[in-house]
Amino acid sequence: MGYAAVDAPAPDAQVRSDLELPILDLSRADDPEQAAAFRRDLLGASHEVGFFYLTGTGVTAAETAELVRLTEAFFALPLADKVAIEMVNSPHYRGYTQLGNETTRGEPDWREQIDIGPERPALPRSEAEPWNLLQGPNQWPAALPELRPVIEAWQAKLEKVGLRLLREWAEALGQDRHVFDPAFATDPATLLKIVRYPSADTLETTSTQGVGPHKDSGFLTLLYVPPGQPGLQVDYRGQWLEATPLEGAFVVNIGEMLEVATNGLLKATVHRVQVPDPGRARISIPYFYNPNLSARVPILDLPEELQAYATGVTQDEKNLLFGTYGENALKSRLRAHRDVTERHHAALDAQWSARQRQGFASA
Ligand SMILES: O=C(O)CCC(=O)C(=O)O
Ligand SMILES: [Fe+2]
Tens digits of per-residue pLDDT, 225-249? Predict the structure, then answer.
C-alpha cells in the first residue's frame, strides 16, 4: 500500500525472466527437524532479494478460487455500482479507486481497486497522531453482498500467516520470538486490496505503468496473483526480475517497517507492475500485514554475526522512512490518492509537505 517515490532501476534496465525467486514452505516451520533450516532459508531469501514465494500457508485452493471469482465479479459490475463506493467519499482512504486515480511517483497507475481495512469505527482526530484518520468504516459494494464475508475470512486467515512469519523472522534474527507481537496485539492496521489491471488494448494511454516503482510501507505483504498473469517485477541489483505467479503460493515481500527494525538487514524491495499485454487483464489481491497505527517499530539489537549485513536504512529524501507505522502509512496515502487528500485533508497535506521539505524524520 505504500507508494513511495523511490530510486528504481533505470528506464532502460533489463527485465530478466531467467532468474527465479526462492520458494519457501511455511509448513516446515512446524516440523522440529526442519524449523531451523526453514529460518535460515527465510533469512537468506529476505536479505538477498526481499521477495520470495510462500507455500504451506494453510490457505486452500477452494478459498482462493472463491475470492478470485468474487473479485472478477466485482470488477465486471457496471461502473455506477463501483463508483457508488468511490474512495474519494471516504476520509479514511477506503473504497473503490477508478483507473488512473492513484498515482505513484506522480504518474497515474493504470489499475482499479478496492481498499479494505479491518471494520472499525473512525478514531477521534488528533494533532499528535494525525494518522488516526486512516481508521474508519469500509465501503462495501451493495451490488455484491457475498464479497464481504469472503474477504473477512481471508483477512482473518492471512493475519495468522503474517504473525507466524514475523515470529519466524524474529527467531531467525536472534530475537525473542515474540518481539514484534506487541505492535500487532491491538487493532493492527492491516489492509487488503482487490485489484484489476486492464490490458493495454483497452486503455486510452500508451503508459506501461500498472503501478509504478514503490516500496510497501508496512512489515510484510502477502500477495495472491492467479497463475498465468505476469506483470510484477522486482528490483534485483538494478535489473527487473519477473515475479511470475506460482500455483498455490503467495508472493511475499518486505515492507519499510522491517527494513527500519533490522537497520537495513532486511530490505524493502522496490517493485512495480506493468500494464498487461493485449487481451490479458490481470487481477491481484495484496494483503498488507501492518501493525497498530501508533506502534513504534522495535529497533532490534542484532547478533554480532548479522550486524555486518545491517548496512542502514535507505533514507531517500523523496521517501523518508518513519519509525511510527501510522506516520509511514499516512505519508504514502496522502501522496498516492490525491483526490481523497485534496477533498478531506488539504490542511494536513500542506503541513506534511513542509515537513518533508525540511527532511525531518522521526524515525
Ligand atoms: O498487483 C501486484 O502484483 C502488486 C501490487 C503492489 O505492489 C501493491 O499494491 O503494493
Ligand atoms: Fe507493492
Answer: 999 999 999 999 889 999 999 999 9
CA distance 295 to 289: 13
Q: Whose CA is nearest to atom 9 of ligand 1?
A: 1
pTM of the model: 0.94
Angle at 205 between CA 202 and CA 211, to 5 degrees: 90
DSSP 231-293: -EEEEETTEEEE----TT-EEEEE-HHHHHHTTTSS----EEEEPPPTT--EEEEEEEE---T
Residue 359 confidence (pLDDT)? 46
Amino acid at 94: R
Furthest CA-CA distance within the chain: 58
Q: How far is the CA of 285 from the centre of ligand 1 (A)?
A: 8
Strand partners, 239: 236
Sequence-ordered list of residues with C-beta below 8 angstroms from that of 358, at least 6 positions apart, any chain: none
pLDDT tens-place string over residues 152-186: 999 999 999 999 999 999 999 999 999 999 999 99
Percent helix, strand, coil in the chain, to 5, is: 35, 20, 45
Distance CA 161, CA 149 (A): 19
Which residues, including other chains, have CB under 8 Å from residue 246's CB and lie 6 or more apart?
23, 53, 227
Per residue in 48-102, pLDDT (tens digit) is 888 999 999 999 999 999 999 999 999 999 999 999 999 999 999 999 999 999 9
Q: Which residue among 195, 214, 219 is best mutated to probe the pocket of ligand 1, counting the most ligand atoms within 8 A of its Cβ?
A: 195
In this structure, which ligand is nearest to the CA of 284? Answer: 1
Q: What is residue 2's predicted lDDT score, i.e. its pLDDT?
A: 42
Q: How far apart are the CA of 361 and the centre of ligand 2, in A?
A: 22
Is the CB–ligand 1 distance for residue 273 below 6 Å? yes
Rounded to whole angstroms, the Cα distance separating 218 from 228 reads 28
Residue % of the chain over a pLDDT of 70:
94
